[in-house]
Design a protein that fits this description.
The structure holds 2 protein chains of 2 kinds. Chain A has strands spanning 5-7, 10-13, 19-24, 31-37, 44-50, 53-56, 65-68, 75-79, 88-95, 105-106, 110-114. In chain A, the strands form 2 sheets. In chain A, strands 2, 4, 5, 6, 9, 10 and 11 form a 7-stranded mixed sheet that branches. A 4-stranded antiparallel sheet of chain A has the order 1-3-8-7, with no helix packed on it. The radius of gyration of chain A is 13 Å and the shape is globular. Chain A is 0% helix and 48% strand. In chain B, the strands form 2 sheets. In chain B, strands 2, 4, 5, 9, 10 and 11 form a 6-stranded mixed sheet that branches. A 5-stranded antiparallel sheet of chain B has the order 1-3-8-7-6, with no helix packed on it. Chain B has strands at residues 3-7, 10-14, 19-26, 32-38, 44-50, 56-58, 64-68, 73-78, 87-94, 100-102, 106-111. Helices cover 0% and strands 56% of the residues of chain B. In chain B, a hairpin with a 5-residue loop joins strand 4 and strand 5 (44-50). The chains are: A mainly beta, B mainly beta.
């Protein structure tokens, strides 16, 4: 079974620029998540999709971050404009359903550096 | 709101020694509990999880964890550390909806 694919692996941008990350979940996984992992911290949920609908985006800084999951498969996360504090690893994960107890499968992440 | 506390951001063990990583959670109802491992520049890999049933859970790579409701704990252990166990370990909880709340992580260093 193919894993969760993310691209790019690394990205360096200047502050105030925009950036986009892409995630392709495991085939058939209805639920998709984006997490932000700042260096030295545990991952923090940014947004959760169930198919193409948003379940939870309470921690998403909506003034600069946006995410979509068209057709309920791939997803993109965008930051515009980026700030220095957005430097982090952005992890995408997917799971078979939204019922608790099923572990996620995580992608390898995109490491963003904002200079 | 749920929270997860991992005692010790860094743990150093000798090869062959016991590995013990502590995790305590706060939740109004018994949650689902997870341990993940993260190797450098990689995503998170599930080590083990507790949902219901037996409170002692065995995972991959010789790790196990015990859910103790009275102590709201889910500590991770491995009897004998191996050099390949050097990584960062995250405890996480979920209370329905599959949203994971992570602890701050514990980085394990294994000394030869």
């Amino acid at each position: 079974e193919a894993g969760v694919a993310q691209s790019p692996r690394y990205k360096i941008i200047e502050k105030r620029q925009s950036v986009a990350f892409w995630c392709n979940p495991i085939s058939g996984h209805a639920t998709l998540y984006w997490y932000q992992q700042i260096l030295g911290q545990g991952p923090k949920l940014l947004i959760q999709f169930q198919n193409n609908g948003v379940v939870d985006d309470s921690q998403l800084p909506k003034d600069r971050f946006s995410a979509e999951r068209l057709k309920g498969v791939d997803s993109t996360l965008k930051i515009q404009p980026a700030k220095l504090e957005d430097s982090a690893v952005y992890l995408c994960a997917s799971s078979l359903d939204s019922v608790g107890g099923h572990g996620y499968t995580f992608g390898s992440g995109t490491r963003l550096t904002v200079v | 709101a749920q929270s997860v506390t991992q005692l010790g951001s860094h743990v150093s063990v000798s090869e062959g020694a016991l590995v013990l990583l502590r995790c305590n959670y706060s939740s109004s109802v018994p949650p689902y509990l997870f341990w993940y491992v993260q190797y450098p520049n990689q995503g998170l890999q599930l080590l083990l999880k507790y949902t219901t049933g037996a409170t002692l859970v065995k995972g991959i790579n010789g790790f196990e964890a015990e859910f103790k409701k009275s102590e709201t704990s889910f500590h991770l252990t491995k009897p004998s550390a191996h050099m390949s166990d050097a990584a960062e370990y995250f405890c996480a909880v979920s209370k329905g909806g599959n949203k994971l709340t992570f602890g701050g992580g514990t980085r394990v260093l294994v000394k030869p």
